[in-house]
Recover the amino acids of this structure.
């Protein structure tokens, strides 16, 4: 954490403090939430507190090696519990599946583009990359699906903020990189995208492109302020995706992907994927249902029935 202000005895009426990481993307997302709050509640005074997380400090190792989920959220969650801030804005895919004690997801706003994007220095698509091309990603999920499609690729670790990763791709450190389309678009870097990867090639992480606005579970005032920001369709979709991941083991290190969207009959359609890290075996399944949590759990059972257990262990 960059600063440690004293926890106020009580939040003054009309004032709310948002916590955020210091990256350009995290600050964009927090300011977007702040602007939504200003529009919904004219006159609301909004303050921002910056934090540095473990995931921000340790940049020389892939995320799975230093702990995976929670690396970008723990400091913010502790500040919420201590009363230093009233809200924390996260990328939902960074939040651990298990509910944080004393905290709640007060709002899940409408989701952005959930696809992954390819940025290639020579402007090539995934299929057009030369044999042995160096592709940067530190995501096991992305790596497995890339190798399933192009087993000849050379995958290299890639860490850093979105803008840093894009610079590395354009400077020649890699022939291409893969990262979430939503982050690229939020930072006005979409002009560098050479291909938006179709869902049948690259299924996203559970919760990808959705924001999570976290607050104290018992803070009725803040939860009321957040109600206008919540998008029911997005909440239902990501609930199904995260239920799928939770039923498979929650923090499992195997490559897992999931994406839900409304189906024509007013139900949810959920696609899921479990893969071997080398991409040699990929299990895909899909289903539909009205209850998001039940749908996610059912699809996880289908995955296990198709042999996902061997990949998960």
């Amino acid at each position: 954490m960059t600063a440690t202000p004293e926890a106020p005895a009580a939040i003054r009426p009309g004032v709310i403090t948002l916590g955020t990481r210091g990256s350009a993307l995290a600050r964009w997302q927090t300011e977007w939430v702040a602007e939504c709050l200003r529009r919904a509640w004219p006159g609301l005074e909004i303050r921002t507190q910056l934090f540095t997380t473990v995931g921000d400090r340790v940049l020389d190792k892939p995320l799975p090696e230093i702990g995976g989920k929670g690396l970008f959220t723990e400091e913010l969650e502790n500040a919420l519990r201590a009363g230093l801030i009233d809200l924390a804005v996260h990328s939902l895919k960074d939040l651990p599946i298990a509910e944080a004690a004393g905290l709640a997801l007060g709002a899940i706003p409408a989701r952005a583009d959930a696809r992954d994007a390819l940025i290639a220095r020579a402007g090539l698509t995934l299929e057009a990359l030369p044999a042995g091309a160096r592709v940067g990603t530190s995501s096991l999920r992305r790596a497995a699906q890339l190798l399933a499609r192009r087993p000849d690729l050379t995958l290299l670790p890639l860490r850093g903020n979105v803008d840093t990763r894009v610079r590395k791709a354009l400077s020649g450190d890699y022939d291409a990189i893969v990262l979430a389309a939503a982050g690229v678009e939020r930072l006005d870097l979409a002009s560098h995208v050479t291909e938006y990867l179709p869902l049948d090639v690259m299924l996203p992480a559970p919760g990808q492109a959705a924001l999570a606005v976290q607050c104290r579970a018992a803070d009725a005032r803040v939860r009321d302020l957040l109600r206008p920001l919540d998008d029911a369709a997005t909440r239902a979709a990501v609930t199904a995706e995260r239920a799928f991941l939770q039923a498979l083991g929650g923090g499992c290190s195997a490559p897992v992907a999931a994406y839900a969207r409304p189906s024509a009959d007013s139900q949810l359609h959920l696609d899921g994927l479990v893969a071997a890290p080398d991409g040699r075996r990929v299990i895909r399944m899909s289903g539909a249902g009205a209850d998001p949590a039940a749908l996610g759990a059912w699809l996880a059972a289908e995955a296990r029935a198709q042999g996902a257990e061997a990949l998960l262990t």
In short: The first helix runs from residue 24 to 40. The mean pLDDT is 89. The chain has three domains: 15-109+210-230, 116-196, 237-312.
